[in-house]
Amino acid sequence: MKIRDIMTPYPMTVGPEQTVGEVARLFMEHKIDGIPVADVSGRLIGLFT
């Protein structure tokens, strides 16, 4: 099995300007515990967990 077989190809992302409260709400609504942080060009700049 390869990563591409189980990965999420187009994950939801947040921007660095979003508040912790906004992201916490996304965590609860989507039942997730981590989300990629992307800049305005879509480049990955971090992971919020």
Q: Average pLDDT across residues?
A: 97
Instruction: State the name of the first-level CATH class.
Output: Alpha Beta
Outline: flat
CATH topology: CBS-domain
Sheet of most strands: 2 strands, antiparallel
The parts where pLDDT drops under 50 for at least 5 residues are none
Strand order of the largest sheet: 1-2
CATH architecture: Roll
Domain count, please report it. 1
Quaternary structure: single chain
Helix content: 25-40%
N-to-C CA distance: 26 Å
Offer a few descriptive terms.
49 residues; alpha+beta; CBS-domain; two-stranded antiparallel ribbon; 2 helices
Write the layout of secondary structure elements.
Elements: H1 3-6, H2 20-30, E1 35-38, E2 44-48
Antiparallel strand pairs: 1-2
